UniProtKB/TrEMBL annotation:
UniProt keyword list: Cell membrane, Cell projection, Cytoplasmic vesicle, Disulfide bond, Endosome, Glycoprotein, Membrane, Postsynaptic cell membrane, Repeat, Signal, Synapse, Synaptosome, Transmembrane, Transmembrane helix
Similarity remark: Belongs to the VPS10-related sortilin family. SORCS subfamily.
Region (Disordered): 91-183
Parts of the chain that traverse the membrane: 1126-1146
Record PROSITE patterns: PKD
Segments of skewed composition (Basic and acidic residues): 163-183
Organism: Dicentrarchus labrax
Subcellular location: Cell membrane; Cell projection, Dendrite; Cell projection, Dendritic spine; Cytoplasmic vesicle membrane
Membrane topology classification: Single-pass type I membrane protein
Principal place of residence: membrane
Domain annotation PKD: ranges: 847-906
Domain of life where this protein originates: Eukaryota
Protein's UniProt name: VPS10 domain-containing receptor SorCS2
Length: 1213
């Protein structure tokens, strides 16, 4: 979540921090681009700390909610990160801890933006501030009385005159105003950081309440080098009146990049050096007075402090490794590798078994991660826990308070799981047809979850959903809430919780392309528009009638919070809210004014007609306003009556470009430091302002009054009547540190307004909750056990934290009833990875869920489909999943059956068990007869890889491929010449290819060749070797016989022993297409039989080529000039000879066909490649191919019954 809280150090990109412990401090990061002219100051102000609040920020307890998407951006610790692109350091996850007395909502992971908290902290960036209300050269004044301040409002570049109002009065006083009064001055002192004029960044830390120590780190960041080139460390011990430079104490040549402070002991300081120069850290235990340096062997990207143990720290490195230290960084130990960034969390007391337990997400592959827990000092495999059974989506682990969230995507659709109080994970139940595209967890406070969901039909808005205490069942709270992208690419939802008033929220909702601000007092149960002020600040009436016109507020946190879009409230000042916005039919970014309410949003007043940052002083007893302007200023405005009157005070004699404000830690906030510069080349100017001098006494009981909280006259809010003790607007006194907000409350009778719709119910136009069309009210949880009781919903549930009693409570509260005996219904079977595939030999985890029925008395039987089955006595015994290992490739029908005395239900899942395809070979004849059918076979390695698709490109048909599930096809070639055959095999995510050229002729003669045994010793059985040797054999035959080159083809066959085949083509010039009878063939056979064909493979290796004598048959002749009886006899002899050869050579291979496999019918394409090979040459290849790899032929890929060798049915081309 996006939290600007009171952390140990300030950082410009602090976007995420979570209050968790009882601690507050102040911090500030300033960045100033010295390349800008004086009139074009680049500065952004982000409020930090617990002191003042502002119109542009949330207070320590009030939050601008950021949806943190199953993201790790907030946890109850301090997390710090680096921000520069190269260094990648920032404090997005800086975690702050709250003080006693802080509201429970402080434990919520949300966006907290504070222009000032209990110490008015600002953070600034190097960006130019834009003036919104500058239609002319004059700056608009807050009132009608205007005056010119010498030296203020003048542009040093243009030198133009700018008018400013001298005083801000009420309407009556303004009209009766007399002569100009003497200028009011504040007690202030200025200190210049001499020698740092070139430094363009600064980080500031105020040690904390009751401490006068301020640390400031200034840096020169070179944007060309993307690194820090100079740094200075300054320390003040007198609340910022003077500073001492400490460069000599940390090393004159040491370049510092970041400053961190322990959240549990603010005296402990940690400084990081620039890793471009050296990787080390400096540690101080005396608030930065002295330091010790320690070398590091890794580069720190982010830090996470323990919420309770002051010396325990987690450090995340640039190479995705997580380190731990229990000595505040003096020694480090590797915890885990491949950890996802920002996805590591400390354990929470009362929920986790050990205080040193770490929750983290580890990366397994590009699309898979694991949620594991391990011990701080002993994170071994034996000590790791895996709370979620299976893989999760990367960057989805979120641990917030008592809830843990993960995401698992199945078939492209995410499924969100939640675990409450570290219990088992359960899918989050959103309304059935929500179909979320994106989901972000906004808060987890007070035992419920608030989630922002972008549904399937939304693009720029989100719907807000609230859960029950289990975090499982969600109902709609508000539709179409506006969202925007934050500076870190995070999603920002325009939702703001008001501090000091439990259950009060503000939200910007988009309706008919108009953005309107809505308010709720009962945690989203009811929303209404804001009533606009009746008069403007000049006393003129404003005609604005609901619902056509209303007040709209900027709730988003822009990249530059020193402009519009800011809001502030305080726990110590309940009912007071300051925000910028506009009046009209919708929210606009033009004509932005500042508004205030003193009665918790019932009525509003306009206090400025241009943008000001408004900060809280003295527990909210006074307000300070600083104008947003790119020009230098020397005045600020003060109000002691909740913004009704404003007085202008000067805080410096020389106009100053304001870069940021840092307030004293603590609730009283009476000391403030303004950071700025006189010109873009000057040193940092630090102006300390002590507001104590403007108060003449301390408050007494007579200075307070009671205030009744209400919503348009309705006093019962969240089930109680609340009465607060507040300072009277007429009292000008100091409340001091001893002041605390006091409230008395009385119970109210419950009404229908205290209940929201339960899961599965929707609110109709008449205000009643009725079942949604998809919901069955009679459905029961699987946890309902016979003999026990369950809560039968009435369609309503009480709003979380609502304390109403009696009234209609009995009518709307769920009724406890006996669990009836019910047959199982809604049985679900999935794999833990959410996929329908598994890898051979690996564990597959099956998850079984039962929606309805007696889970404790319903037995579950799981049949894995491979002859193994398991039975469990009840559903709860298999909540961690059921693991199984498959030993054969195939498609298995996995069946889960739930059964009790009333009935049963069965669910099936078809699981594809596969293995990796490594190699394919296209078996095809080298020469084919025109218009004669030939067999093409793709042989796989391994032969059984699962479901396979074959894509064929045959001959000249290159545009439309033939797609089959069979590994063989039969084709004919109509034209003579060279035809190319290409086959691709697709198995899972793997696609492999092989290609062959086939010579097509009208007829040919062929014969097998054998070789002397010494050739086998030099045969590597690779295609390139076979091509080269084929060429050598052909040349040897030509030399020995005189056969012309174009009449002879030779190819060496794959496998061992080495064999080849020659093809004798007719001489068409002599025979005119008629085959020669015996002349050339007899010459070739004679030369072979006389050992005349020889070649030298390498020196000393002489190879002799023989004619292979399988039978007494002559050469195979494909001509049609033979008699039928002769051909029949010839083919019979050949077939018998080949059969003898095949049986002799493949007796092991044939035996391997008999292999048991899963018990389902064979699908198309399931035949073994052995049955697809046509002719001895194909069989010879298969034999040698698999024999060389010492593997046997397994059964068909998707056979379940015993494999049967069968005839091949060819698919015609």
């Amino acid at each position: 979540m996006l939290c600007f809280s009171h952390a140990a150090k300030a950082e410009i990109t602090c976007r995420s921090c979570q209050p968790g412990n009882k601690w507050r401090a102040q911090e500030l990061l300033l960045k100033f681009d010295t390349s800008e002219p004086a009139t074009g100051l680049k500065g952004e102000v982000f409020g930090r700390g617990d002191g003042a609040g502002s119109s542009g920020a949330a207070s320590a307890e009030s939050r601008r909610l950021r949806c943190a998407a199953l993201s790790a951006e907030c946890a109850p610790e301090i997390r710090a990160e680096y921000t520069e692109q190269r260094l990648k350091r920032n404090t997005d996850n800086l975690r702050a801890i709250s003080e006693p007395g802080e509201s429970e909502f402080a434990k919520m992971k949300v966006s907290r933006v504070q222009m000032s908290g209990d110490g008015a902290g600002f953070t600034t960036r190097t960006r130019k501030r834009a003036r919104r209300n500058s239609d002319d050269d004059k700056v608009r004044t807050p009132g009608s009385a205007q005056s010119q301040d010498p030296g203020e409002g003048r542009s040093s570049a243009a030198g133009r005159r700018v008018t400013r109002s001298e005083l801000r009065w009420s309407g009556e006083e303004r009209r009766a105003a007399g002569p100009r009064q003497e200028e009011l001055k504040l007690n202030s002192s200025t200190f210049a950081l001499t020698g740092d004029s070139s430094h363009n960044q600064a980080m500031v830390h105020w040690s904390g309440q009751n401490s006068s120590v301020i640390l400031m780190l200034t840096k020169l960041f070179d944007f060309n080098l993307n690194s820090v080139t100079e740094s200075s460390l300054w320390r003040s011990t007198d609340y910022g009146a003077t500073y001492q430079k400490l460069n000599d104490k940390v090393g004159a040549k040491t370049i510092l990049s970041y400053l961190y402070v322990s959240p549990n002991n603010k005296r402990k300081i940690m400084l990081l050096t620039d890793p471009e120069v050296e990787s080390s850290l400096l540690i101080s235990s005396d608030e930065g007075a002295t330091y010790q340096k320690y070398r590091l062997n890794f580069y720190i990207l982010s830090l996470l402090f323990h919420p309770e143990q002051e010396d325990w720290i987690l450090a995340y490195s640039h190479d995705q490794k997580l380190y731990s230290s229990v000595e505040f960084g003096r020694r480090w130990q590797l915890v885990h590798e491949r950890v996802a960034p920002n996805r590591f969390y400390w354990s929470k007391m009362g929920l986790d078994k050990e205080p040193g337990l770490i929750h983290l997400e580890t990366s397994i592959s590009e699309g898979q991660a694991l949620y594991v827990t391990c011990k701080l000092q002993n994170c071994t495999d034996a000590n790791k826990g895996k709370p979620f059974p299976g893989y999760i989506d990367p960057n989805s682990l979120v641990v917030q308070d008592e809830y843990v969230f993960v995401q698992v995507s199945t078939a492209g659709r995410p499924i969100y799981y939640v675990s409450a109080k570290r219990d088992v994970f359960t899918p989050m139940k959103l309304p059935k047809y929500t179909l979320p595209k994106d989901l972000h967890v906004i808060s987890t406070d007070e035992n419920r979850v608030v989630a922002a969901v972008q549904e399937w039909n939304q693009n720029e808005t989100y719907n807000l959903y609230v859960s029950d205490t289990s975090g499982v069942y969600y109902t709609l709270a508000l539709e179409n809430v506006v969202s925007s992208m934050g500076p870190e690419g995070n999603v920002m939802v325009d939702l703001y919780e008001v501090a000091g008033i439990k259950g009060m929220f503000l939200a910007n909702k988009k309706t008919d392309n108009q953005v309107k601000t809505h308010i709720t007092y009962n945690r989203g149960r009811d929303w209404r528009l804001l009533q606009a002020p009746s008069k403007d600040l000049r006393g003129n009436s404003i005609h604005c009638v609901l619902p056509y016109c209303s007040l709209h507020l900027h709730l988003h946190v822009s990249a530059n919070p020193y402009t519009s879009g800011n809001i502030a409230s305080r726990d110590s000042a309940p009912g007071i809210i300051v925000a910028s916005g506009s009046i009209g039919s919708e929210l606009t970014t033009s004509n932005v004014s500042v508004f205030i309410t003193s009665d918790a949003g019932n009525t509003w007043r306009q206090i400025f007609d241009e943008e000001y940052a408004v900060l809280y002083l003295d527990q909210g007893g006074a307000l300070v306003a600083i104008r947003h302007t790119p020009l230098p200023i020397r005045h600020l405005w003060l109000s002691f009556d909740e913004g009704r009157q404003w007085n202008k005070y000067s805080f410096t004699n020389t106009p100053l470009f304001v870069d940021g404000v840092l307030g004293e830690p603590g609730e009283e906030t009476l000391i403030m430091t303004i950071f700025g510069h006189v010109s873009h080349r000057s040193e940092w100017q630090l102006v300390k302002i002590d507001f104590r001098s403007i108060f003449n006494r301390r408050c007494t009981e007579a200075d307070y009054q009671t205030w009744h909280l209400h919503n348009q006259g309705e006093p019962c809010l969240m089930g109680v009547k609340r009465i607060y003790r507040k300072l009277k607007p007429t009292s000008r006194c100091v409340m001091g540190k001893t002041y605390s907000v006091s409230m008395t409350s009385g119970p109210c009778d419950c009404t229908e307004a205290d209940f929201e719709c339960d899961y599965g119910y929707e609110r109709r136009t008449n205000g009643k909750c009725a079942p949604a069309f998809w919901f069955h009210p009679s459905s029961m949880s699987r946890s309902c056990t016979t003999g026990m009781t369950f809560l039968n919903s009435t369609g309503y549930r009480k709003v979380v934290s609502n304390n109403c009693t009696a009234g209609v409570s009995v009518e709307y509260t769920a009724r406890r009833q006996q669990c009836p005996i019910q047959a199982p219904k809604g049985l679900h079977l999935v794999t833990s990875e959410g996929t329908l595939t598994a890898t051979l030999g690996t564990n597959v985890t099956f998850l079984v869920f039962l929606e309805e029925g007696d889970g404790a008395r319903t037995s579950i039987t799981l049949d894995f489909g491979d002859g193994h089955a398991l039975t469990y006595s009840n559903v709860s015994s298999i909540e961690d999943g059921i693991k199984h290992v498959y030993k054969a490739v195939g498609i298995y029908r996995v069946t889960a059956t739930g059964e009790n005395s009333l009935g049963s239900e069965t669910v099936m899942l078809y699981l594809h068990v596969t293995c990796q395809l490594e190699y394919i070979h296209l078996s095809a004849p080298f020469v084919a007869v025109r218009n004669k059918e030939v067999n093409l076979t793709a042989v796989l390695w391994p032969s059984q890889v699962g479901t396979v698709t074959y894509i064929w490109w045959i001959g000249n048909n290159t545009e439309v491929p033939l797609i089959t599930l069979e590994g063989s096809v039969a084709c004919t070639f109509p034209r003579e010449g060279i035809s190319t055959v290409t086959v691709q095999v697709s198995a899972g995510n793997t696609i492999l290819q092989d290609r062959k050229n086939i010579a097509v002729h009208e007829y040919f003669r062929s014969h097998l060749l054998a070789f002397s045994s010494n050739l086998d010793d030099h045969n590597p059985d690779v295609a390139e070797w076979r091509l080269d040797v084929s060429r050598v054999i052909k040349n040897s035959l030509i030399q020995a016989t005189g056969v012309r080159e174009d009449q002879l083809l030779v190819t060496v066959l794959p496998g061992l022993p080495t064999a080849a085949e020659f093809f004798l083509l007719p001489d068409k010039q002599l025979t005119e297409g008629k085959p020669e009878k015996n002349s050339l063939s007899e010459v070739l056979l004679s030369a072979l039989n006389q050992n005349l064909v020889q070649f030298t493979l390498r020196p000393g290796v002489q190879v002799t080529v023989y004619a292979a004598h399988l039978s007494a048959a002559p050469l195979v002749d494909t001509s049609e000039n033979h008699s039928g009886s002769a051909m029949l006899m010839l083919l019979s002899v050949v077939v018998v000879g080949l059969a003898v050869f095949v049986i002799y050579k493949f007796k092991r291979l044939i035996a391997a066909c008999q292999m048991p496999s899963p018990a389902y019918p064979t699908l198309l394409g399931g035949a073994s490649p052995l049955t697809h090979l046509g002719g001895s040459r194909g069989n010879s290849f298969v034999r040698s191919f698999f024999a060389k790899r010492n593997v046997s032929q397994p059964s068909a890929a998707i056979n379940i019954k015993p494999f049967e060798c069968r005839q091949l049915t060819f698919l015609k081309c």
